[in-house]
Amino acid sequence: IKSETRDQRSDSSIKKCVSQENMSYSSPAQQHRRRELWAWLILGCAATNVIFLGGKRRAFGVFVAQLHAEFNGTISLAELNWIGDSYAAVGYMTTTLSTSVILSSGRRFQFFQMLGTLAILLACITSAFVPNPHWLFLTHTVFHGVGSSLILSTVGL
């Protein structure tokens, strides 16, 4: 009788692992492996974003010279440097908040990685069309700072 019960248990555990869409057998080890590969893919994308963020952050001086020439000297170099430095500061200051939001939302890393990437894309696109250099504080500092905060938080978790 015990062997029948054991067989029935193994049958029911196998039935739980059979996907309903294609009715193919997927063991718990295979499911774990897929989740693990997906996690490594997310981490790889996040790390790539951090590499690009760091490069842009360290090379912002190149943008300062071009922006100063573009706006015909209507804004000082110091103000342009503040824009570059303040987006890094906003990013670092909001990392605690974005980490808390990611954790409280059930660790939806893919969603927040994509949201951060879209915020940085929005920052870059809107910064290209500003009529006044002072708008860069909103378009570049705030959008880019929050976006980089989301990416750094995703990688850190």
From TrEMBL:
Disordered: region residues: 1-27
Highest taxon in the source lineage: Eukaryota
Biased composition (Basic and acidic residues): 1-14
Coiled-coil annotated spans: none
UniProt keywords, alphabetically: Membrane, Transmembrane, Transmembrane helix
InterPro entries on file: MFS_trans_sf, Proton-linked_MCT
Membrane spanning stretches: 37-55, 86-104, 111-129
The protein's name in its UniProt record: MFS domain-containing protein
Organism name: Macrostomum lignano
